[in-house]
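Sequence in, structure out.
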Amino acid sequence: MSESIHLACPHCAAINRLPAARLAQHPKCGQCHQALFTGHPLELTAANFDKHLRSSEIPLLVDFWAAWCGPCRMMAPAFAQAAGLLEPTMRLGKIDTEAQVELSAHYQIRSIPTLILFKGGREIVRQAGATSAQDIVRWAKSHA
């Protein structure tokens, strides 16, 4: 008996239903036929954030950042590396706090970079400050 999960496509945002056991087998979207996991953080906006937060049944780790922030720019390669290490058990996304002011305000982002781990559509835990890829992976796995 295989448990099925729902997962939003990072390209077209279509909701895909697939067996959980197939997550590691490089699944493709049933609508656009592109890879459901890219090994890179997803650019999240007000238009696609809720779809990935509420429709996908894997944890979502979000980096709230800004282009002018030195620590954010320093952590960006580490976050991208963490995406390759955490997928397919977790989706990673980035929200530009300057471009997505409503989302930043909704989640009361006071300092950047801030990582928030969501599970089941709810915030589980958050952490502020730049960190290494290994620390991101360890932190996310310990709370997922």
